[in-house]
Please model this.
Amino acid sequence: MGVLNDVYEMLNTCNKCGFCLTACKTYKTDLREPMSPRGRIQLIKKLADGVIEPDKDYEDAINSCLLCGECAVACPSGVRGNDLVLAARRDLKLRKGGIKPFTKSFALKTLASPSRLEHGFNLFRGVGKGILNRIDGLDYFRGVDVKGMPVAKKPFMDQVPEHITVNNPKKKVAFFVGCFLNHSLDGTAHSVVKVLTKNDCDVIIPKDQVCCGLPQYAYGDFETAKENARKTIESFLKKDIDSVVTACASCGSMLKEEYLKLFADEPNYLPRVKEFCAKVFEFSQFVEEEIELDKSKLKSHTPVKVTYHDPCHMVRHLKITSQPRQVLRSIPRLEFTEMNEANRCCGASGLVQAFYHELSTDITRQKTKNIVDSGAEVVATSCPACMLRIQGGINFAGQKQKVVHVADLLAKAYKSEN
Ligand code: SF4
Ligand code: SF4
Model:
């Protein structure tokens, strides 16, 4: 039974009551039991008991889970469906001796390696995007807004020095950039640096930083995830820093929480992991809790109505909800409005959007509807993957709203000082 042995007690705790069903967006979209938390849990239990083999239907049930954690919140018995799915993916990886199919394994290997990722983006930047732009019908390939996807002219980390200093710094902050901000949304990375420097922080951007390891971890490749986690921890702790800031909720939950689980079996290294995790802050959490935002420096700009999307990793993993809203409310002439189901998953969920694109697109469609119904002109959020997914959904629906990071709006409020 292997990996599933570790979660067997939790598998048995599920009493099949079904309270989690309406919380699960894959079930609400697909309406088949294996696409629900209860269905997934019962399948995992049957596999653990040797009653079934991992066939395609089983793998689809496990791999289509968004890992959004909504079932864990809804369950009165404390069963964490997302953790059980994670264990099932780890079990699948071990049974098969690797991640299947090849395309998924290739994508995860590319993400894990900075040089491979850079080659991939260089290809997309130089040739791929031009070719794609000329192919009719490829606008929304498998639900992803390929033509609309921004690509940085060159990686953010090649645009900035490793140390950005200010006069009389109050803090030394290391910036964990993450793959999306480095290669796609470099403007948001610049916004983060601007906010930090405007608030008297030296910014250190370690050039040897790598992917946090979450994509590989989410599909059970704990070996690669651990390798990248160790590189990340050592890359940042060798710097003289007070804090580590990330503007990606997904990276944030990996850096702050999952690293502790990943290294639970290495008691000698765990203190170093804890030292690192204690320094990690998500961007708006850092702004609200670690610096005194001087609101008098924020200038009025064009009035704008803004709503906020809670990324799954932000709201249910890091449990950060009020801080981004407080940051937004501190911006003059910004009218904040809540959308319905602000914490509903956007449908991206890493590679789920590529491998279960119809399901993912249906989930994104509901998010887009909630945004349009809110009457907001701008959607702020805290995760680059959500930004790209939601902007694609809005474009696909023929709507006009712009999706930005909380950091972008805050940085813009300092604009008139430049
Ligand atoms: S996971 Fe929790 S809510 Fe869902 S069926 Fe099992 S016990 Fe009930
Ligand atoms: S983590 Fe999300 S998608 Fe997966 S079973 Fe739970 S509610 Fe459904």
Summary: The chain has a mean pLDDT of 92. The longest strand covers residues 171-176. DSSP finds 23 helices and eleven strands in the chain. Residues 14-20, 37-38, 41, 71, 74-75, 77, 79, 81 surround iron/sulfur cluster (ligand 1) (CB under 6 Å).
